[in-house]
Amino acid sequence: MPPTRDQAVRSAPGRSALLLLLSLTAVLVWAAPACAHPPARAGTADGPVVLVGVPGLLWEDVTARDTPTLWRMAERASIANVSIRTATSRTCPTDGWLSVSAGQRAFSLRERFTVCEPAPRPQPVAAPSAVEGLDGVFEHDTAGGEVWIPGYGSFVQRNDTSVFEAPVGLLGQAVRDSGGSTLAVGPGAALGAADASGRVDRYLDRPEDLTPGLLRGAALTVVELPELTRLYPSPPESGEGPADPDDVPAWERDTALATVDARLRALIRILPEGASLMVVGVSMDTGPSELTVALSGEAVPGGVESASGFLASDSTRRAGLVALTDTTPTVLAALGLDLAPPTSGRVWHTAERPPTTEAAVARLVEFNTAATVVGAAIPGFFSGLVAVQLLIYAAAAGALHRYSDGQRAKRALVLSVTRVVALAGASFPVASYLANLVPWWTSPVPFLSLLGCVVAADALVVALAVAGPWRRSILGPMTVVAGATTAVLFLDLCFGASLQMNATTGYSPIVAGRFYGIGNIAFATFATGMLMAVAGCAHVLISRGYRHTAVAVALAVGSATVLIVGWPGLGTDFGGVIALVPGLAVTTMMIAGVRITPARLGAACATGVVVIGSLAWSDLQRPPTERSHFGTFAAQVADGEAGTVLVRKLAAMLGTFGNWQLTLLAGCALLFLFVVLNRPTNWRMGALQRAYEHAPTLRAGLTGSLVTALAGFAVNDSGVAIPAIALTVAVPLTLSACVWALQREDPVPPGPPDPVEGLSTHASGHCGHARQRPV
């Protein structure tokens, strides 16, 4: 007698794991990385490099009327927003200048959390000396000489031992080692230009003292225009320390902007032809954190110009957005110097921008608006998410166990509502991404528009889940919601992850934890949605006798998900691959009807190692400036320097337990899943077990999701956020299946049909497998 399909599957217990390994290996071989052509840089200097730091400068400040010099630069140069996140969540000027110096996230001593200590005033090393101009004429300039920065060693030591190991002094030391000289204007600029010992070749207190000869004599000039910051309400006079921020009198921002613009205009007039000019908002110590300004051009007769476009970098991989730490390698590249390995930033390059300056600047302003609105909304969003999820669990617990046999009509209505509410809860994460399909940030009330877009997208997904014929099956609505979640994030990764940027469950350029690929929160949503969708599809296929096809679908969808999550430049999520492979293997083996053993789980983990090793090796072959963090981490492992990264991620993961909201959400979701849904009802077993009877593959999807959530918790620096968000999707989807099981087994009294379940809910008594419909 020939074996049945199930017997054939069970006769090869390792088949699913082997197929998974072969599928992933074949896809990796087929998708070998193409040779990428490096983008054009934002210009290299034929003369000196001048870096102007303007703390607090925003694109909304740049207008043709109020700041004409900056506006003309925006017309003729390359422009972008700058993410100024440093080693702390609030970047003040001293933090920003130290980060420019190090090319890595740095921090300073704090006076208060929002106001750091002012930059120390440099002290002279010797008397001023003569400066030789390029024309061979000696110009005796008594404006300043070599200086050293008091207490500079404490900045070096504190940052060298921090989790980022920021090498303060890297920029100035690189210039000095190459035989060049540095010139700084202002205490903050001196921090940015100082070498490893805290010395600057020449120092000026005021930008008015700059001359063409001084600019020509320095390879790198760093200028601070601090009028928009609380540290210096006006340029400090010689011999006077910075004003106490608490003693600063009220002053008009428009006046300060006019001063900044006038000083920049005076600087441009004396720039040597061919000099490279970069203007960067190095910090934001007034008001909430925002994205600041970056402009880059080359001095020509009559002003500054370059290839007009948006600035971008391989740090962000987004046109019009660069990171503050990108400034350092860009300056070094403009000077023709090799990039230092400790630099975490990448060189600026140009990308296409709108044809008019008005449209380009407006786009940067709108992007900053989206970032600030989402940044302000995130705490409330997650508090609301926790509250809504807990209310859903509490209401569902009452609906499942409250009503007696004499209240079946009311119970039927409550169960129908519970199912819709559960689907709405599970749809909330994907709705937060779909909301970005609508330009809500252009609204006069962007926060309300964002909220309205999220609610509308959530309602749309739920309507799709309960509107079609699939609503009559146990896993139909669940599969639609999970499938929509998977499809939206998969396509988003394919097209640049624009929906994740500035999404409440995505990533923010202000927080700057990630700028491209898939974030940890999105990974938890994506992985859970995929595993639950695979379980729903497998239920349909197996009920029709196509178990082999169900396994093949699980492998194909799972392999594609693993690939896009891990591939450098797409998902670029190192920890995501580690977490997803075991969960996918567990789900696939359960769909195949194969018993899960330690050996098979070990094979799945080995598969994950092969996949990660292949991706890291592939990325490592790229030039250092083009690698994602896959290749960077592989290089750190090879050099024995990966310990710092691992320690930082471990500390961040353990620190997430301090987020009581997400910890509470994860704990309550698990209690609801394994206590409330498993608690016996008026029938012989709990609702979860009844759902498993009708749809055994539900157990496979849920188990795989829990395995991935646990692994993601262990290997990602987001820690408890991974299982919390995964359960936010998995538990409501499971609840919707449990409600269906109770509705099918609960006789409904005569009356109008249920608006969601229709005639499918009018079964009575206990439905055995012989009586239940296949899907």
What does this structure look like?
This protein is an alpha/beta fold. The protein folds into two domains: 5-31 and 373-761, no CATH class; 49-129 and 141-347, Alkaline Phosphatase, subunit A (3-Layer(aba) Sandwich), CATH 3.40.720. The protein has helices at 5-10, 15-30, 68-76, 93-102, 152-160, 170-177, 187-193, 212-217, 253-269, 327-334, 357-401, 408-434, 446-467, 476-494, 520-543, 547-566, 574-592, 598-620, 629-639, 643-655, 660-676, 687-694, 697-715, 721-745, and strands at residues 49-53, 78-83, 123-124, 131-132, 138-139, 147-148, 182-185, 199-200, 202-204, 220-224, 276-280, 292-300, 303-305, 309-312, 321-323, 349-351. Strands 1, 2, 7, 9, 10, 11, 12, 13, 14, 15 and 16 form an eleven-stranded mixed beta sheet that branches. It has a three-stranded antiparallel beta sheet with strand order 3-6-8, with no helix packed on it. Helix 2 runs parallel beside helix 18 (598-620) and helix 15 (520-543) packs antiparallel against helix 23 (697-715). The two termini are 29 Å apart.
Draw up the topology in text.
Layout: H1 5-10, H2 15-30, E1 49-53, H3 68-76, E2 78-83, H4 93-102, E3 123-124, E4 131-132, E5 138-139, E6 147-148, H5 152-160, H6 170-177, E7 182-185, H7 187-193, E8 199-200, E9 202-204, H8 212-217, E10 220-224, H9 253-269, E11 276-280, E12 292-300, E13 303-305, E14 309-312, E15 321-323, H10 327-334, E16 349-351, H11 357-401, H12 408-434, H13 446-467, H14 476-494, H15 520-543, H16 547-566, H17 574-592, H18 598-620, H19 629-639, H20 643-655, H21 660-676, H22 687-694, H23 697-715, H24 721-745
Parallel strand pairs: 1-10, 1-11, 2-14, 2-15, 7-9, 7-10
Antiparallel strand pairs: 2-12, 3-6, 4-5, 6-8, 11-12, 12-13, 14-16
Helix pairs in contact: 2-16, 2-18, 4-7, 11-12, 11-21, 11-24, 12-13, 12-14, 12-24, 13-14, 14-15, 14-24, 15-16, 15-17, 15-23, 15-24, 16-17, 17-18, 17-23, 18-19, 21-24, 22-24, 23-24
